[in-house]
Amino acid sequence: MRVVVGGGTGFVGRALTQLLRSRGHQVTHVSRQGGKDRISWEELSRTGLPLCDAVVNLAGENVLNPFRRWGDAFCREVISSRVETTKTLAKAIADAEQPPRAWVLVTGVGYYCPSPTAEYTEDSPGGNFDFFSRLVSSWEAAALIPGSPTRGVVVRSGVVLGRGGGAISQMLWPFRLGLGGPLGSGLQPFPWIHIRDLTGIVCHALESECLQGVLNGVAPSSSATSNGTFAREFAAALGRPALLPVPAWAVRAVFGAERAVMLLEGQRVLPKRTLESGYCFIFPDLAGALKEIVA
Ligand code: NDP
Protein backbone atom coordinates (compact mmCIF):
# COMPACT_ATOMS: atom_id res chain seq x y z
CA MET A 1 0.00 0.00 0.00
CA ARG A 2 1.25 3.55 -0.75
CA VAL A 3 0.47 5.74 2.28
CA VAL A 4 0.72 9.54 2.51
CA VAL A 5 1.17 10.74 6.11
CA GLY A 6 0.73 14.40 7.13
CA GLY A 7 2.89 15.18 10.18
CA GLY A 8 4.60 11.82 9.73
CA THR A 9 7.91 13.23 11.00
CA GLY A 10 6.63 13.56 14.58
CA PHE A 11 6.58 11.27 17.61
CA VAL A 12 3.63 9.11 16.46
CA GLY A 13 4.49 9.53 12.78
CA ARG A 14 8.00 8.09 13.12
CA ALA A 15 6.65 4.99 14.88
CA LEU A 16 3.82 4.62 12.36
CA THR A 17 6.23 4.96 9.44
CA GLN A 18 8.46 2.26 10.90
CA LEU A 19 5.48 -0.07 11.41
CA LEU A 20 4.06 0.54 7.92
CA ARG A 21 7.44 0.01 6.24
CA SER A 22 7.98 -3.19 8.27
CA ARG A 23 4.67 -4.42 6.81
CA GLY A 24 5.82 -3.71 3.26
CA HIS A 25 3.96 -0.42 2.73
CA GLN A 26 5.53 2.67 1.12
CA VAL A 27 5.32 5.94 3.05
CA THR A 28 5.50 9.56 1.87
CA HIS A 29 5.36 12.37 4.46
CA VAL A 30 3.72 15.75 4.06
CA SER A 31 5.88 18.16 6.05
CA ARG A 32 6.84 21.81 6.48
CA GLN A 33 10.42 20.76 5.80
CA GLY A 34 11.88 19.17 2.68
CA GLY A 35 13.66 15.81 2.67
CA LYS A 36 13.71 12.29 1.29
CA ASP A 37 10.26 10.73 0.76
CA ARG A 38 8.60 14.06 1.67
CA ILE A 39 6.42 16.63 -0.04
CA SER A 40 5.51 20.04 1.34
CA TRP A 41 1.97 21.22 2.18
CA GLU A 42 2.36 23.88 -0.49
CA GLU A 43 3.32 21.26 -3.09
CA LEU A 44 0.34 19.13 -2.04
CA SER A 45 -2.05 22.07 -2.55
CA ARG A 46 -0.42 22.99 -5.86
CA THR A 47 0.03 19.62 -7.54
CA GLY A 48 -2.53 17.47 -5.72
CA LEU A 49 -2.28 14.16 -3.92
CA PRO A 50 0.47 11.80 -5.15
CA LEU A 51 -0.93 8.49 -6.38
CA CYS A 52 -1.62 6.53 -3.18
CA ASP A 53 -3.90 3.98 -1.52
CA ALA A 54 -4.33 5.67 1.84
CA VAL A 55 -3.84 8.97 3.66
CA VAL A 56 -3.24 9.65 7.38
CA ASN A 57 -3.05 12.99 9.19
CA LEU A 58 -0.92 13.34 12.33
CA ALA A 59 0.04 17.00 11.97
CA GLY A 60 -0.45 19.28 14.97
CA GLU A 61 1.51 21.85 16.95
CA ASN A 62 2.37 20.38 20.41
CA VAL A 63 -0.37 21.77 22.69
CA LEU A 64 1.58 21.05 25.88
CA ASN A 65 4.77 22.82 24.83
CA PRO A 66 5.67 24.47 28.18
CA PHE A 67 7.89 26.99 26.37
CA ARG A 68 4.96 28.48 24.45
CA ARG A 69 2.69 30.90 26.33
CA TRP A 70 -1.00 30.05 26.03
CA GLY A 71 -2.33 33.08 24.15
CA ASP A 72 -4.22 34.00 20.97
CA ALA A 73 -1.29 33.45 18.59
CA PHE A 74 -0.46 30.01 20.01
CA CYS A 75 -4.17 29.00 20.08
CA ARG A 76 -4.49 29.94 16.40
CA GLU A 77 -1.42 27.81 15.59
CA VAL A 78 -2.78 24.86 17.61
CA ILE A 79 -6.05 25.06 15.65
CA SER A 80 -4.71 25.75 12.18
CA SER A 81 -1.93 23.12 12.34
CA ARG A 82 -4.72 20.55 12.81
CA VAL A 83 -7.78 21.91 11.01
CA GLU A 84 -6.04 23.48 7.98
CA THR A 85 -3.75 20.49 7.35
CA THR A 86 -6.79 18.18 7.61
CA LYS A 87 -8.76 20.39 5.18
CA THR A 88 -5.82 20.41 2.77
CA LEU A 89 -5.59 16.61 2.78
CA ALA A 90 -9.39 16.18 2.53
CA LYS A 91 -9.49 18.53 -0.46
CA ALA A 92 -6.59 16.70 -2.13
CA ILE A 93 -8.47 13.40 -1.63
CA ALA A 94 -11.72 14.90 -2.98
CA ASP A 95 -9.90 16.27 -6.06
CA ALA A 96 -7.85 13.11 -6.77
CA GLU A 97 -8.55 11.40 -10.08
CA GLN A 98 -7.91 8.05 -8.41
CA PRO A 99 -9.00 8.60 -4.80
CA PRO A 100 -7.29 6.57 -2.07
CA ARG A 101 -9.28 3.78 -0.41
CA ALA A 102 -8.72 4.94 3.18
CA TRP A 103 -8.37 8.25 5.08
CA VAL A 104 -7.41 8.12 8.76
CA LEU A 105 -7.28 11.09 11.13
CA VAL A 106 -5.89 10.96 14.68
CA THR A 107 -7.63 13.42 17.07
CA GLY A 108 -8.05 13.27 20.85
CA VAL A 109 -10.26 12.10 23.71
CA GLY A 110 -10.58 15.79 24.66
CA TYR A 111 -13.78 15.43 22.62
CA TYR A 112 -15.44 13.91 25.74
CA CYS A 113 -16.29 16.05 28.78
CA PRO A 114 -13.85 15.51 31.70
CA SER A 115 -15.58 13.70 34.54
CA PRO A 116 -14.38 11.55 37.44
CA THR A 117 -17.28 9.10 36.95
CA ALA A 118 -18.78 9.13 33.43
CA GLU A 119 -17.52 6.46 31.00
CA TYR A 120 -17.40 7.23 27.30
CA THR A 121 -17.53 5.03 24.23
CA GLU A 122 -17.25 6.13 20.61
CA ASP A 123 -21.04 6.71 20.58
CA SER A 124 -21.03 9.12 23.53
CA PRO A 125 -21.83 12.76 22.91
CA GLY A 126 -19.20 15.49 23.27
CA GLY A 127 -17.38 18.06 21.25
CA ASN A 128 -18.99 21.28 22.42
CA PHE A 129 -18.08 22.31 25.97
CA ASP A 130 -14.58 23.84 26.02
CA PHE A 131 -11.69 24.90 23.75
CA PHE A 132 -10.33 21.36 23.25
CA SER A 133 -13.67 19.65 22.63
CA ARG A 134 -14.59 22.30 20.05
CA LEU A 135 -11.12 21.93 18.50
CA VAL A 136 -11.71 18.17 18.07
CA SER A 137 -15.15 18.85 16.54
CA SER A 138 -13.79 21.23 13.92
CA TRP A 139 -10.76 18.98 13.29
CA GLU A 140 -13.01 15.97 12.64
CA ALA A 141 -15.47 18.07 10.61
CA ALA A 142 -12.56 19.21 8.40
CA ALA A 143 -11.93 15.57 7.48
CA LEU A 144 -15.43 14.95 6.10
CA ILE A 145 -15.67 14.49 2.34
CA PRO A 146 -19.37 14.19 1.47
CA GLY A 147 -20.09 11.59 -1.22
CA SER A 148 -16.49 10.39 -1.34
CA PRO A 149 -15.75 6.72 -2.09
CA THR A 150 -12.82 6.98 0.35
CA ARG A 151 -13.41 5.24 3.70
CA GLY A 152 -12.90 7.60 6.66
CA VAL A 153 -11.69 6.61 10.14
CA VAL A 154 -11.09 8.91 13.11
CA VAL A 155 -8.95 7.61 15.98
CA ARG A 156 -9.57 9.61 19.19
CA SER A 157 -6.32 9.11 21.08
CA GLY A 158 -5.54 9.32 24.77
CA VAL A 159 -2.11 10.39 26.10
CA VAL A 160 0.41 8.50 23.96
CA LEU A 161 3.07 6.71 26.04
CA GLY A 162 6.29 5.71 24.36
CA ARG A 163 10.04 6.24 24.34
CA GLY A 164 11.58 9.29 22.69
CA GLY A 165 8.70 11.76 22.68
CA GLY A 166 5.29 12.80 23.94
CA ALA A 167 4.30 12.87 27.61
CA ILE A 168 6.96 10.39 28.79
CA SER A 169 9.83 12.51 27.47
CA GLN A 170 8.46 15.52 29.40
CA MET A 171 8.08 13.52 32.63
CA LEU A 172 11.11 11.24 32.49
CA TRP A 173 13.69 13.48 34.15
CA PRO A 174 11.58 14.76 37.07
CA PHE A 175 10.55 11.14 37.79
CA ARG A 176 14.14 9.82 37.41
CA LEU A 177 15.26 12.44 39.90
CA GLY A 178 12.55 11.33 42.34
CA LEU A 179 10.76 14.68 41.86
CA GLY A 180 7.77 13.35 39.92
CA GLY A 181 4.31 12.91 41.36
CA PRO A 182 0.59 13.17 40.73
CA LEU A 183 -0.73 16.38 39.21
CA GLY A 184 -3.26 18.27 41.37
CA SER A 185 -5.44 15.85 43.34
CA GLY A 186 -4.19 12.91 41.25
CA LEU A 187 -7.74 11.54 41.25
CA GLN A 188 -8.52 12.66 37.68
CA PRO A 189 -8.77 9.87 35.06
CA PHE A 190 -5.67 9.38 32.92
CA PRO A 191 -6.68 8.04 29.48
CA TRP A 192 -3.51 6.54 27.98
CA ILE A 193 -2.35 4.32 25.11
CA HIS A 194 1.04 2.78 24.30
CA ILE A 195 2.47 4.18 21.07
CA ARG A 196 2.67 0.69 19.53
CA ASP A 197 -1.08 0.29 20.05
CA LEU A 198 -1.94 3.71 18.60
CA THR A 199 0.14 2.99 15.48
CA GLY A 200 -1.28 -0.55 15.49
CA ILE A 201 -4.84 0.83 15.46
CA VAL A 202 -4.01 3.23 12.61
CA CYS A 203 -2.47 0.36 10.64
CA HIS A 204 -5.50 -1.87 11.43
CA ALA A 205 -7.78 0.95 10.18
CA LEU A 206 -5.76 1.24 6.96
CA GLU A 207 -5.71 -2.50 6.30
CA SER A 208 -9.32 -3.40 7.31
CA GLU A 209 -11.23 -2.73 4.12
CA CYS A 210 -14.68 -2.34 5.76
CA LEU A 211 -13.78 -0.26 8.81
CA GLN A 212 -15.01 3.32 9.09
CA GLY A 213 -16.14 5.85 11.70
CA VAL A 214 -14.73 6.66 15.13
CA LEU A 215 -12.38 4.40 17.13
CA ASN A 216 -11.21 5.31 20.63
CA GLY A 217 -7.43 5.04 20.89
CA VAL A 218 -7.03 4.19 24.58
CA ALA A 219 -5.89 1.04 26.38
CA PRO A 220 -8.76 -1.16 27.62
CA SER A 221 -7.68 -0.73 31.27
CA SER A 222 -7.09 3.01 30.97
CA SER A 223 -10.60 3.88 32.13
CA ALA A 224 -9.53 2.64 35.57
CA THR A 225 -6.22 4.59 35.60
CA SER A 226 -6.04 7.84 37.54
CA ASN A 227 -3.26 10.39 37.27
CA GLY A 228 -2.09 9.29 40.74
CA THR A 229 -2.01 5.62 39.72
CA PHE A 230 0.01 6.55 36.64
CA ALA A 231 2.52 8.56 38.73
CA ARG A 232 2.94 5.67 41.21
CA GLU A 233 3.38 3.03 38.49
CA PHE A 234 5.75 5.17 36.42
CA ALA A 235 7.91 5.88 39.48
CA ALA A 236 7.83 2.17 40.42
CA ALA A 237 8.90 1.19 36.88
CA LEU A 238 11.88 3.56 37.28
CA GLY A 239 12.61 2.32 40.83
CA ARG A 240 12.00 5.80 42.26
CA PRO A 241 9.54 7.25 44.79
CA ALA A 242 6.62 9.43 43.58
CA LEU A 243 6.02 11.40 46.70
CA LEU A 244 5.79 14.96 45.51
CA PRO A 245 2.39 15.98 44.19
CA VAL A 246 2.52 18.94 41.80
CA PRO A 247 -0.07 21.43 43.08
CA ALA A 248 -2.82 22.50 40.67
CA TRP A 249 -1.77 26.17 40.96
CA ALA A 250 1.73 25.31 39.73
CA VAL A 251 0.34 23.42 36.70
CA ARG A 252 -1.89 26.45 35.92
CA ALA A 253 1.08 28.82 36.34
CA VAL A 254 3.17 26.89 33.79
CA PHE A 255 0.50 26.02 31.22
CA GLY A 256 -2.25 28.65 31.74
CA ALA A 257 -5.69 27.82 33.17
CA GLU A 258 -7.31 26.70 29.90
CA ARG A 259 -4.51 24.31 28.93
CA ALA A 260 -4.01 23.04 32.51
CA VAL A 261 -7.48 21.44 32.22
CA MET A 262 -5.85 18.80 30.01
CA LEU A 263 -3.62 17.76 32.92
CA LEU A 264 -5.82 18.43 35.94
CA GLU A 265 -8.96 16.80 34.57
CA GLY A 266 -9.52 13.69 32.50
CA GLN A 267 -11.99 11.31 30.89
CA ARG A 268 -12.71 7.60 31.42
CA VAL A 269 -12.77 6.29 27.86
CA LEU A 270 -13.47 2.78 26.59
CA PRO A 271 -12.18 1.48 23.24
CA LYS A 272 -15.49 -0.32 22.56
CA ARG A 273 -15.63 -0.09 18.75
CA THR A 274 -11.86 -0.56 18.52
CA LEU A 275 -12.14 -3.94 20.27
CA GLU A 276 -15.31 -4.88 18.35
CA SER A 277 -13.45 -4.15 15.10
CA GLY A 278 -11.02 -6.96 15.97
CA TYR A 279 -8.02 -4.94 17.17
CA CYS A 280 -5.94 -6.85 19.79
CA PHE A 281 -4.03 -4.57 22.16
CA ILE A 282 -0.32 -5.30 22.64
CA PHE A 283 -0.24 -3.34 25.91
CA PRO A 284 -3.67 -3.51 27.58
CA ASP A 285 -2.24 -2.84 31.08
CA LEU A 286 -0.24 0.10 32.39
CA ALA A 287 2.45 -1.89 34.21
CA GLY A 288 3.35 -3.83 31.05
CA ALA A 289 3.33 -0.68 28.92
CA LEU A 290 5.62 1.19 31.34
CA LYS A 291 7.95 -1.78 31.73
CA GLU A 292 8.52 -1.79 27.95
CA ILE A 293 9.04 1.98 27.89
CA VAL A 294 11.63 2.23 30.66
CA ALA A 295 13.45 -1.01 29.77
P1 NDP B 1 4.16 15.92 17.27
O1 NDP B 1 4.19 17.03 18.29
O2 NDP B 1 5.30 15.00 17.26
O3 NDP B 1 3.91 16.62 15.86
C1 NDP B 1 3.54 15.92 14.71
C2 NDP B 1 3.95 16.69 13.49
O4 NDP B 1 3.07 17.79 13.28
C3 NDP B 1 5.32 17.31 13.53
O5 NDP B 1 6.31 16.36 13.26
C4 NDP B 1 5.22 18.42 12.48
O6 NDP B 1 5.64 17.93 11.20
C5 NDP B 1 3.74 18.73 12.43
N1 NDP B 1 3.50 20.08 12.97
C6 NDP B 1 3.86 20.54 14.21
N2 NDP B 1 3.52 21.84 14.33
C7 NDP B 1 2.94 22.19 13.15
C8 NDP B 1 2.41 23.39 12.64
N3 NDP B 1 2.40 24.50 13.41
N4 NDP B 1 1.89 23.39 11.39
C9 NDP B 1 1.91 22.26 10.62
N5 NDP B 1 2.42 21.10 11.04
C10 NDP B 1 2.92 21.07 12.29
O7 NDP B 1 2.76 15.12 17.48
P2 NDP B 1 2.51 13.61 17.90
O8 NDP B 1 3.22 12.74 16.94
O9 NDP B 1 2.73 13.46 19.35
O10 NDP B 1 0.92 13.49 17.67
C11 NDP B 1 0.37 13.25 16.39
C12 NDP B 1 -1.07 13.73 16.37
O11 NDP B 1 -1.80 13.03 17.36
C13 NDP B 1 -1.22 15.22 16.66
O12 NDP B 1 -2.21 15.79 15.85
C14 NDP B 1 -1.68 15.25 18.11
O13 NDP B 1 -2.50 16.36 18.40
C15 NDP B 1 -2.47 13.94 18.21
N6 NDP B 1 -2.48 13.42 19.56
C16 NDP B 1 -1.29 13.17 20.18
C17 NDP B 1 -1.27 12.74 21.50
C18 NDP B 1 0.01 12.47 22.22
O14 NDP B 1 -0.03 12.15 23.44
N7 NDP B 1 1.19 12.57 21.56
C19 NDP B 1 -2.54 12.53 22.24
C20 NDP B 1 -3.74 12.76 21.46
C21 NDP B 1 -3.69 13.20 20.18
P3 NDP B 1 6.71 18.75 10.26
O15 NDP B 1 7.69 19.41 11.18
O16 NDP B 1 7.30 17.67 9.43
O17 NDP B 1 5.90 19.72 9.48
Automatic annotation (TrEMBL):
InterPro entries for this protein: DUF1731 (IPR013549), Epimerase_deHydtase (IPR001509), NAD(P)-bd_dom_sf (IPR036291), SDR39U1 (IPR010099)
Superkingdom in the source lineage: Eukaryota
Domain DUF1731: 246-293
Domain NAD-dependent epimerase/dehydratase: 3-208
One Pfam entry name: DUF1731
PANTHER family per record: EPIMERASE FAMILY PROTEIN SDR39U1, SUGAR NUCLEOTIDE EPIMERASE RELATED
The protein's name in its UniProt record: Epimerase family protein SDR39U1
Organism of this sequence: Manacus vitellinus
